[in-house]
Amino acid sequence: xxxxxxxxxxxxxxxxxxSFYIPYNRVRHWAWEVYWLVGGFFAWVLMPWVxxxxxxxxxLGLMGRLSMKMVLWPxxxxxxxxxxxxxxxxxxxxxxxxxxxSLALGLTATFGTLVPPLxxxxxxxxLATRSGMVTLGGVAICLFGIAVTGLAGIFxxxxxxxxxxxxxxxxxxxxxxxxxxxxxxVMSAGFAFGIAAGKPIAELxxxxxxxxxxxxxxxxxxxxxxxxxSNFFYCIYLTLRNRTYKDYIKKSNTPLLKNYxxxxxxxxxxxxxxxxxxxxxxxxxxxxxxxxxxxxAFIITFSNMWGLVLKEWKGSRRRTIRTILLGLAILVLxxxxxxxxxxxxxxx
Length: 348
What we know:
Layout: H1 3-19, H2 32-55, H3 59-65, H4 68-119, H5 123-127, H6 130-159, H7 162-168, H8 174-187, H9 190-197, H10 199-207, H11 217-242, H12 256-281, H13 291-309, H14 318-345
């Protein structure tokens, strides 16, 4: 157990998650459903296998030991997470990186952090220890920070005209964005449940020679394939409805090779968030449930930083800018408090 190193890995994963959508902004003349599915193939199908093949010496032996039950639950939770992933992408499309991620991840952090210990009957145990109380306090601070960043987004929406908002975010639509953010926030928590359901796979991976730091990699194969299945059917439906299937092969004035490269870069970056998230969880001790909250906090921090860099907050008043900066500071504080709770745990 090394909570400080665990938090560092969560920070790297949060940076990847907060940055993955940027390459998509460089894709030209492709429909959303096309570049989302191409990037998803790299993120949810290709990369999990590549990393697992690298980190698990006896991958064939491991796969031969897996039962249907061990595989099925991570896959099903992955499908739920995949629905959240689809609507998460739509949230970025309609609200931008700053407001979209803040709203969606606020709900994701709440469900993904608190429901697992409630489900496994660990909440009373946490409340009975000093380290548990500190860790839960850090989670509460995290949720408060997320609420503050969401408040900044509401300020922004009231201050800017429709023309100013669409100039910064091409398809800005607050009503659609709020609906998909709600769905994304609830469904995306399925990934945390998939990790919990896949612990037997992670334990078996260690038996077959995988370093504990990368023990979650085989579990990702099944969680993310479930997510890919959900996204695949939705994107194919949109492709047929919008007749955008020609985008994959040929379309006039389309930089085809560059589009595939940027989608691959986005997908690989997306996967890196979970690679480092999985590494971080292995170092957080018995309070690894807090990893999800830390992960969300870092994602919101870095996505809002990118939002400032990309001028998504251009034209906002000082009150709004101060509010978003305050929210980021609170999120950073929350990770420190959660890390302190994990540190105290070592001496109880």
